[in-house]
Design goal:
about 240 residues; alpha+beta; minor pseudopilin epsh fold; six-stranded antiparallel beta sheet; four-stranded antiparallel beta sheet; about 25% helix; elongated
C-alpha cells in the first residue's frame, strides 16, 4: 500500500449523521438545563444584593460613630412613591443628591448607581456642617446592582409614619431614622425598616428580606419575613 493510501485509512472522523445526533442531544440538554441556570443566577444576584445592602448599613452605622456625626444612605434613584431602591436604567431620571452645591458629588458614578453612603464634609471653623449644607461631603460607599434586581422598602408595621423611606440617617448613637423630605423637618426614628429583594429574571422567586431595627441591627432572611405581616417584607416577589 502506498504512503498516501495508508494516511487516508488512518484518518478517523464523524459522519454527518453522527454530528446531527450530537447536536440534537446537546440542544435537548441545554433546553432542560437553561431554567435551572437562570434560577441559580437570579438567586445569586438576590443574595449578593441582600448582603451588599446589609454591608452598606453596617458600614454607614460605623462611620456615624467614627465621625460622631450623622451619616446617610441614599437611593441613587427612586420611583415617585419612594418605595424602590434599584431603579432600572431605562426608568432613571435625576440622581438623588443631598446638596446640589456639593462639589464632591462628581465622585458619584451615577450611570449604574443603586445607592450610596454619604458622610459629612469638613467643618467650617469650629462648626460642623450638616450633609445637606456641606460642599465637601464624602461618598465612601457606592453600590451598583444589575437591572434585574429589584429592592422595595417600607416601615414595619406598614402603618408607621413615614411609610416611604426617602433614605436612612444613622446617628452617632446608633439610631436609624428617615431622611427628612425638607430641611425644616426633623429626622423620624424608625421602629424597623424592611427591604424586599427580588429578581425579574424568574417568576415569583423566594427572594430575600433585609430587616433593620431602630438601633441599626441588620438581619437577612431567605424569603419573605415570617414574623410581621408588613406590606413589603411579608409580600411575595
Amino acid at each position: 500500500m502506498s504512503s498516501r493510501g495508508a494516511l487516508r485509512s488512518s484518518v478517523l472522523g464523524f459522519t454527518l449523521v453522527e454530528l446531527l445526533v450530537a447536536i440534537v442531544i446537546f440542544a435537548i440538554i441545554a433546553t432542560i438545563a437553561a431554567p435551572s441556570i437562570t434560577t441559580a443566577l437570579a438567586n445569586r444576584r438576590m443574595k449578593n444584593a441582600a448582603y451588599e445592602l446589609k454591608s452598606s448599613i453596617v458600614q454607614a452605622r460605623a462611620l456615624a460613630a467614627t465621625y460622631n456625626r450623622n451619616v446617610e444612605m441614599w437611593p441613587a434613584y427612586q420611583n415617585s412613591s419612594n418605595t424602590t431602591w434599584n431603579v432600572p436604567a431605562a426608568s432613571r431620571t435625576t440622581l438623588n443628591i443631598p446638596n446640589s452645591g456639593d462639589v464632591s458629588r462628581t465622585s458619584l458614578s451615577d450611570a449604574k448607581l443603586s445607592w450610596y453612603v454619604v458622610a459629612p464634609g469638613a467643618a467650617t471653623g469650629t462648626s460642623a456642617v450638616a450633609i445637606a449644607d456641606s460642599t465637601t461631603n464624602l461618598y465612601p460607599i457606592q453600590v451598583s446592582l444589575p437591572d434585574q434586581t429589584s429592592i422595595k422598602v417600607g416601615t414595619i408595621p406598614s402603618t408607621a409614619s413615614p411609610t416611604a423611606i426617602t433614605g436612612l440617617r444613622f446617628s452617632p448613637l446608633g439610631y436609624v431614622g428617615n431622611i427628612p423630605t425638607t430641611s425644616t423637618t426633623l429626622s423620624t426614628t424608625l421602629t424597623q425598616v424592611s427591604f424586599r429583594v427580588c429578581d425579574s429574571a424568574v417568576s415569583q422567586p423566594a427572594g430575600y428580606t433585609v430587616l433593620v431595627s431602630a438601633f441599626g441591627a441588620v438581619r437577612v432572611i431567605a424569603g419573605a419575613n415570617p414574623d410581621v405581616a408588613d406590606t413589603v417584607g411579608h409580600s411575595s416577589c
